[in-house]
Amino acid sequence: DAGITQSPRHKVTETGTPVTLRCHQTENHRYMYWYRQDPGHGLRLIHYSYGVKDTDKGEVSDGYSVSRSKTEDFLLTLESATSSQTSVYFCAISESAGQVSTVQYFGPGTRLTVT
Amino acid sequence: GNSVTQMEGPVTLSEEAFLTINCTYTATGYPSLFWYVQYPGEGLQLLLKATKADDKGSNKGFEATYRKETTSFHLEKGSVQVSDSAVYFCALRHNAGNMLTFGGGTRLMVKP
Fold this sequence. Notes:
The complex is a heterodimer of chains A (about 120) and B (about 110). In chain A, about 0% of the residues lie in helices and about 55% in strands. Chain A is built from no helices and 11 strands. In chain A, a hairpin with a 2-residue loop joins strand 7 and strand 8. The radius of gyration of chain A is 13 Å and the shape is globular. The N and C termini of chain A lie far apart (about 35 Å). With about 110 residues, chain B is an all-beta fold. Chain B is globular. The N and C termini of chain B lie far apart (about 40 Å). Classes of the chains: A mainly beta (about 120), B mainly beta (about 110). Chains A and B meet through strand 4, strand 5 and strand 10 of A and strand 5, strand 6 and strand 10 of B.
């Protein structure tokens, strides 16, 4: 299994509060991703990173920001959580991107509930 | 844009039954195709992949063939086990891009 951990694994927070989720990898992979999983939608990309301090938006980036100050850590922040952000959040990593051989490996997920 | 459509679940089978989970896609060019599996309480694991037309991906008794003419990547297994109970996701990725596009997932329940 790829060395990916996410913290916290479960969180309940109130509407309007800031929340930060952490993804930590021990594989030294260059690319890291944040997805959210919602029933009927599969997983949708929020943001991704292609290196330290290099990030870009995904399909559903509104209301989220990310930061990557070290290769091994990728943080997802909800500046002011809303009930629509209740979801399961998955981090993924890949060694490469844009190549036929590229494969993304996923972490165990964080279940976030916004009340 | 890209999209992936999977059959809705849940799919309920008896042990040793034959499994097919349908997946079709819409994309320009020649994407790579993937099946991921999510066991209860866990993250997604790559099950198999195919990177060009007519490729067959296989792993743990599961198979899927990249059919460009029908834009499909159906997942099959000849004899399912209780331990195969999970949610299965079909996904595509353009080889020039980073983003995976997922189907909605299909829950498989296998009964003894």
